[in-house]
Amino acid sequence: MKAVGESDGLEDGTFEAIVSVFGNVDSYGDRVMKGAFEKTLEEWTASGNPIPVYYSHRMDDPDYNIGLVLDAKELAPGDKQLPEPLMELGGLWVRGQIDQHEEARKARQAYRLMKGRRLTQFSFAYDIVDYAVVKASADDEYVWELRELKLYEVGPTPIGANQETELLSVKSAAHHADRLAAGLKAGRVISAKNESELRTAYESIGRVLDALEPDEDSKASERAPAKTADDPDGAKAAEEPTRMSSARARQLIALESASESI
Predict the structure, then answer these.
(1) Helices marked H in the chain — which ranges?
(2) Which SS3 state, helix, strand or coil, does residue 7 take?
(3) pLDDT tens string 74-87
């Protein structure tokens, strides 16, 4: 966080922050590239809606929607608005407003913590639109270059990206799974124990997906009476292969791909 409130020369309730840094590799092995936010910022501007500010990604409770972004832009390396440690990197800069009305208790508490420098880190929620897995060093380390992102919200958080909410935890798990798959395709190996645990988790998820999505045959039987051999269409229908649920199909495709990688 760069500045907050009147003590930093801003209006009461406002703040400035760098919510994403370009070019460096974070603890998850991601590298956000300059330009990753250009399109999504244009889309937010065209929509006429403000980018929301949530406390620690808590999108499950409207009380944690604590403010809005007044202005946002990408800062190129060397921009004078960058703090000295980030001068050679650049990043996504935002200026925001934290709600100050009496009913906004969580917003006002978050703002007090920000002013007291007890809450100084920021994060953001996003989807990956375009990326590449690239070799980062001679040690065969791979990183995800995030080239285009869809931004959903920004906000203060105690320790960087918060994974307490269900949605973010699911996205994080998918993100790490994709990175693991990329590593396997690049020639890495995993232990037999880890492979067994992965397959057990895979089978459990498959059972959940099957429970969520009934087979296509079941759906068809509910929509129309069964055809017989006397029906002109009956013979043709009998010759057609049985359709499995799309969830099961995705399972088999994923398992086949995993087997090829391993």
Answers:
(1) 38-47, 105-115, 166-185, 192-212, 216-223, 234-239, 246-261
(2) helix
(3) 999 999 988 888 89
Residue 115, CA distances (Å) to 1, 66, 99, 131, 231 in order: 10, 15, 14, 36, 77
Cβ contact 10:16 at 8 Å: yes
**What are the pLDDT digits (tens) for 112-126?**
999 888 888 888 999
C-alpha dihedral sign at 33, 38, 39, 43: positive
Structure tokens at 88: 């050679």
Angle, in degrees to the nearest 10, between helices 166-185 and 246-261: 40
As to burial, measured by CB atoms within 10 angstroms (0-12 exposed, 13-18 middle, 19+ buried), residue 151 is: buried
CA angle (61, 157, 160) in 5-degree steps: 130
Can you give the pTM of this predicted structure? 0.61
Distances (CA, A) of 173 to 4, 30, 47, 180, 212: 34, 14, 30, 11, 20
Q: Determine the Cα–Cα distance for residues 256 and 260; give it in Å rounded to an integer.
A: 6
Cα distance between residue 125 and residue 117, in whole Å? 23
What the block records as the tokens of 9 is 């020369």
- Chain segment 152-207, per-residue pLDDT in tens: 999 998 876 422 222 223 334 555 566 667 666 666 656 666 677 677 777 777 77
Q: How far is CA 170 from CA 25, 165, 177, in A?
A: 22, 9, 11
Q: How far apart are CA 46 and CA 162, in angstroms?
A: 29
